[in-house]
Design a protein that fits this description.
44% of the residues are buried. A six-stranded mixed β-sheet has the order 6-7-8-3-9-10, sandwiched between helices. The longest helix is centred in the C-terminal third of the chain and has 18 residues. The N and C termini lie far apart (37 Å). Helix 2 runs parallel beside helix 4. By secondary structure, it is α/β, with parallel strands linked by helices. Bound molecules: adenosine-5'-diphosphate and magnesium ion (MG). The site of magnesium ion (MG) has 4 residues, from helix 1. The site of magnesium ion has 4 residues, from helix 1.
Length: 241
């Protein structure tokens, strides 16, 4: 599937929230590009990712992938993989089978899926961890397993919600390099939430800057710094991290 992602007029409210969590959000990203979603906590970034993935049904608006309307398309049929802030692994499967699962649901034979999974395990620097129980992993290790599982699904769209925030700086750099390598190999369209502006500049070409359920500005990383479109954008992109 062509991985161009277009979000049109997306709105979402939850019972009990006085203002919409997403307020008429429009965003279009090219196939194979990497866009960082930045902005204050509570701005709606995670909700947008969840709406794109199909985990959240919007009140209004639509999500198109490669021009195809995703309304009514189940999350697992959207050609997407998502890594949430806190990894969700299957506790009853070992590390390797957690990753191989991404292949078997696509109809890949189990043995092939396991070989594939071992390769992704190496990529996230967890070689030798295949037989471990996921409940025995550290937070950072579990997150890397979740990343490997997302990659093993060969998604055309990869949705990452602060995937590296639990990792120490060294591992984080290694994951940035991994992401670059992955882009060369598989070229998925990436939407990545981060609260770290320097990380956004390292991994992404473009930034979508969120505030209060809206996108204040969507532009290249360079233009976001050199030509902020508003005082608020300038304030959010400047100052201390
Ligand atoms: P961000 O990822 O930018 O920090 P979120 O998308 O997680 O923001 O959340 C935006 C707002 O929506 C927050 O105020 C949050 O409390 C609220 N919210 C998110 N999910 C739900 C939910 N399921 N029910 C009620 N409120 C929610
Ligand atoms: Mg969030």
């Amino acid at each position: 599937m062509n991985g161009t992602v277009t979000v049109e007029g997306l709105s979402k409210s939850f019972p009990g929230t006085s203002t919409p969590v997403l307020d008429d959000v429009n965003l279009s990203v090219e196939a194979g590009s990497c866009t960082a979603l930045l902005g204050p906590s509570g701005a709606g970034k995670s909700t947008l990712l969840r709406a794109v993935s199909g985990l959240e049904v919007p009140d209004a608006g639509r999500v198109l992938v490669g021009g195809q309307d995703m309304a009514g398309v189940k999350p697992e049929r959207r050609g997407m993989a998502m890594v949430q802030q806190r990894p969700l692994l299957f506790p009853h499967l070992n590390v390797l089978d957690n990753i191989a699962f991404a292949g078997t649901v696509r109809g890949v034979p189990k043995r092939t899926a396991r070989v594939d999974a071992a390769e992704f395990l190496d990529l996230v620097q967890l070689e030798g961890f295949g037989r471990r129980q996921v409940t025995a992993l550290s937070g950072g290790q579990a997150q890397r397993v979740a990343i490997a599982r997302a990659l093993a699904a060969r998604p055309s769209v990869l949705l990452l919600d602060e995937p590296f925030s639990a990792l120490d700086p060294e591992l984080r750099s290694a994951m940035h390099a991994l992401l670059a390598e992955l882009r060369r190999r598989l070229n998925p369209t990436i939407l990545m939430v981060t609260h770290d502006r320097s990380e956004a500049a390292v991994v992404a070409e473009n930034i979508a800057l969120f505030s209060g359920g809206r996108i204040l500005q969507h532009s290249s990383v360079e233009l976001m710094y050199s030509r902020p479109a508003s005082l608020e954008a300038s304030r959010l992109m400047g100052g201390a991290n």
